[in-house]
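F.,

This is the one I mentioned.
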């Protein structure tokens, strides 16, 4: 079965959002996932290498994946809004995806800044199959909101992440209630240098282990 790839222009709170929708190659979609990219002010886009690998790992696990550019990135309209606005962009993208696939459960995934976006959105809204945070940046400030979060939280971190150092990540993780998981990928830096293939396989393996239950129509 060939993979379906579609370009879309979504209606966002600050204007149109450039997006890319991809269905899995080998099976019907099991769940739907929104994937968020790293910091817009430091070159982050939906075409980032880690984001691409994250999306492909999820697709290989049976997800239909929606990647999009935050406001002010690529062809997306608007201006950077210091996390709060980007959370609303992700909320709009998720709403669009759920309208497109109303019978599928949903997940949220993101890298770096994008991991902050999806955990904030997922913890506030609830209902996600899982929240998958790659390269969670502990240096971006407090993350107490994770301590009151009931959604399954999955952290995948480089062993040499300069923005999410291992001691800080482990200390944060210990404070969090279940359900939670933490995985370490041996890599050179925050961007999983030298370990993109193992990272993708880790994403696939974790996501494939979830057994989605269809949403009643």
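My design for it:
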């Amino acid at each position: 079965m060939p993979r379906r790839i579609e370009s879309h222009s979504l209606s966002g709170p600050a204007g149109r959002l450039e997006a890319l929708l991809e269905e899995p190659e080998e099976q019907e979609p099991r769940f739907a996932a929104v994937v968020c990219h790293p910091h817009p002010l430091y070159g982050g886009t939906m075409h980032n290498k880690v984001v691409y690998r994250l999306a492909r790992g999820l697709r290989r696990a049976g997800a239909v994946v929606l990647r999009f550019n935050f406001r002010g990135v690529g062809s997306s309209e608007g201006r950077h809004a210091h996390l709060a606005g980007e959370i609303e962009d992700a909320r709009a993208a998720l709403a669009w995806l759920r309208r497109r696939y109303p019978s599928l459960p949903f997940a949220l995934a993101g890298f770096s800044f994008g991991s902050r976006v999806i955990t904030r959105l997922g913890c506030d809204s609830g209902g996600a199959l899982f929240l998958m945070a790659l390269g969670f940046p502990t240096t971006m400030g407090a993350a107490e909101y994770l301590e009151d979060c009931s959604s399954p939280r999955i952290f995948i971190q480089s062993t040499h992440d300069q923005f999410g150092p291992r001691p800080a990540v482990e200390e944060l993780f210990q404070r969090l209630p279940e359900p939670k998981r933490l995985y370490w990928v041996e890599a050179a830096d925050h961007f999983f240098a030298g370990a993109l293939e193992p990272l993708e396989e880790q994403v696939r393996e974790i996501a494939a282990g979830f057994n989605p239950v269809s949403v009643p129509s």
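The first helix runs from residue 49 to 60.

Talk soon.
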